[in-house]
Write a structure and sequence with these properties.
Helix content: 10-25%
Order of helices and strands: HHEEEEEEE
Number of strands: 7
Radius of gyration: 19 Å
Strand order of the largest sheet: 1-2-3-7-6-5
Largest sheet: 6 strands, antiparallel, barrel
Number of helices: 2
Strand content: 35-45%
Length: 143
């Protein structure tokens, strides 16, 4: 009760506090599960994309490559998960959100459509409701 009272003083609703608590618990438990019983299924990966860099007068913008890395489980999509932007031949990557970090400074990374991960192009990016994982559809070049 004291937790909820102090949070209401901070301007947070009990629902926001409960959701935050659940997210914290999930983000703590999922990596542990992947380190334990599911360790054989987990693989490290890296991703990258090019973004516009700073504008240089007379030269325009120089592209900057954003690189990130993390851990996840590579698999396939079930028939009911297929959508216009997800094909049966796409690779499904379920990535741990709190372990996906920018290589440059270790801050949280957010994957985007058209990024390259494990030599494949990201075609879809979804986040689960608890903000614990990213579900990515990866497609081999030419597909």
């Amino acid at each position: 009760m004291a937790l909820f009272v102090s949070c209401s003083v901070m301007g947070l609703s009990t629902q926001e506090v409960a959701v935050g608590y659940i997210q914290d618990r999930i983000n703590a438990k999922v990596p542990k599960a992947l380190d334990g019983k599911l360790a054989d299924a987990v693989r490290s990966f890296s991703g990258e994309r090019e973004e516009s860099g700073e504008y240089v007068p007379g030269q325009g913008t120089n592209p900057v490559t954003v690189r990130y890395s993390g851990r996840g489980v590579f698999g396939s999509f079930k028939a009911e998960e297929l959508a216009p932007h997800i094909e049966a031949t796409d690779t499904k990557l379920t990535a741990l959100q709190n372990e996906l970090t920018l290589d440059s400074d270790g801050s949280p990374a957010t994957p985007q459509v058209d990024d390259i991960i494990a030599g494949q192009t990201v075609k879809s990016v979804r986040q689960d409701p608890a903000s614990a994982t990213w579900t990515l559809a990866l497609r081999k070049s030419g597909g």
